[in-house]
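Re: your question about NAD(P)-binding protein

S., sorry for the slow reply, the queue was backed up all week. Below is exactly what I fed in.
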Amino acid sequence: MLNRRNFLGTGALGAASLMASPSLAGVTKAEKADVVIVGAGLSGMNAAMLLQDLGMKVIVLDANDKVGGRVRTVDTPDGPLDVGASQVGRGYARVIDACQKLGLKLIPEDRDLLTFGVHMYDQWIDPKTWAANPLNLTVGEERNIPPHLMGSSIVHKYNPLKELDEWLDPKYASMDISLRQLMQQKGHSEAAIKLAEYSSPGIGVDQTSMLRMWQEETRGALDRRLGTEPSRRDHPFGEANDHKLINGLASISNIEGGTFQLPKAMAARLGDAVRLKKMVKQIDLTDKSGTVTCADGSVYVGRFVISALPFTMLRDVTINGRPNPIARKAITTMPYANTARLYLHVERPFWKDDGMAPSFSTDGPIGMFWAIDNHTGEGQHRAMVVMVGTVGAAIARYGHEEAIQFILDELARLRPASKGLVKVRTYKDWARDPLQRGCGFSLAPGHVNAYARKMNTPWQVMHFAGEHTRRIDYGMEAAMESGERVAIEIAGRA
Ligand SMILES: Cc1cc2nc3c(=O)[nH]c(=O)nc-3n(C[C@H](O)[C@H](O)[C@H](O)COP(=O)(O)OP(=O)(O)OC[C@H]3O[C@@H](n4cnc5c(N)ncnc54)[C@H](O)[C@@H]3O)c2cc1C
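Result:
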């Protein structure tokens, strides 16, 4: 098990010996470092900070003009708005620790999702009376599962994992299958499988391995165990916020001023080690060093290299080194899910005009509408149209303006009362972000057995970080976990 104390206990390491490595002699034009880190997201920068603390010279390269990757905060008339990561759980040890060290304040999330209705088969459905609804073609106990919770309920029901890293245990190799296959094995009706298509965690009922879904589910259960009351899972995505403070932390916290404050403060700590607008194009590996070449011709040579890029991006980087079929397969085939969100300001709660549930899930092209409130009263509210899974993948076909108009039109069609009352604050489609091409990694059925157990093995001197290399965590904490892991690996080899 990774252990921060063990890691810091190796602190006698010095940079000087590494810098004097004969393998780097003879390289004149390239800038040299002990470790060249590609990607200034949380994973790359966490590794950089830990290695710098050990006295190593690190250089962190990022193609963007800012650090943070999938942590991004935009300014809006309603204040800072996180279009990437925003929620910090009570179990986020590394994120919380970094916030404390860097002087950032965690504040309880002020966002509550209002009740969900369901729009399916071109009709409004009341989840409370769904069991008796003639449109409900499911059978037996399935009938009691609200249609928008079918996917997540089934995933939860059959989750066999007790420990956070068990998803990688070969004893579960036979479960590296899709949700459709699992439901068929367990004798579920075709109607239930159809409903799961609209509410499956991961990309979809056919695209994502159960082991990948259960990893996330099992990690989520850990945060729930740190809560004060049983969690309510009455909406299709995420948890109800219980608001109670334990050791000063709510079940969900945000970083004051927006999550971007974290990578910004990490970059400030790293100083001139961070180099922006450095699009890495090629990595040449030997057993003694790695040479990283950027699109602008600049070259960096490290005794070690860390790839902290999502594989959607690493697959465009030419990697020369000893053949490594497992890494190549992972890099070239790992699927990525999309999230696209339209962030709205609601002038007046239109759900009080039409009398319907404020939030809703739909089997149509906009997925979910989240009505957000922190006072449950009158006046202005926030809202989000949240498109994930196959809906998120489909919306990525549209350009920015076209997507916004399409979503607003569909919202107005479903909820005419919303017309004129919603104002767009911003829109973000992560699949269309040229430096991301997706919101997060997935693993297709068969991918855990094919490569996930071994894909973190270093490729000569290159180590792999990034949330997609997680073992036990999720979200930002997975990125931090992976940064810590590669720092330990390198400290152990140096
Ligand atoms: C919409 C959304 C909501 C989320 N919500 C939450 C949440 O509430 N809570 C939570 O914990 N997590 C959340 N996450 C997940 C979290 O943001 C990620 O797990 C984490 O930020 C990933 O960090 P990373 O270092 O692995 O990768 P990234 O942040 O993707 O960093 C990779 C970096 O590589 C750079 N790069 C790409 N290509 C190149 C290249 N060729 N050369 C050089 N640099 C390159 C990119 O610019 C980027 O900065 C969310 C993510 C999204 C997209």
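The domain at 4-69+258-322+459-493 is CATH 3.50.50.60 (FAD/NAD(P)-binding domain). Residues 1-27 have pLDDT under 50 and may be disordered.

Happy to talk it through on Thursday.
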